[in-house]
Amino acid sequence: MKQYKTVKEVCKLTGLTRKHLYYFHRENVVRATAYANYSVEGNDGYKLYDEEAVEKLLYIALYYRFGLKRNEIRDMMLDPCYDQEDAECPALAYLYD
Hints:
This protein is mostly helical. It has 6 helices and 3 strands; from the N terminus they run E-H-H-E-H-E-H-H-H. It has helices at 7-14, 18-26, 36-39, 51-65, 70-78, 90-93; strands at 5-6, 34-35, 47-49. The longest helix has 15 residues, at 51-65. It starts with a strand and ends with a helix.
């Protein structure tokens, strides 16, 4: 069974706020993986994030620490060539200089 984290747990883990999560959810950068009132018993009414979504949010937190603004992070992560594992991606090149 997949492990999910609530918004509160993700905020504590990443250091991001609920507003950050809402913004990136609304902009289709990182969507909640499940909604407890539909798909997971025991967490009624909560947005839930799986491991992959939490990893993306950890990268977002890191990009904030680099000094990027939220719209810059959004644009970078929505870029078709974006791959957090790929340093050759032009959208990420300036982070590695």
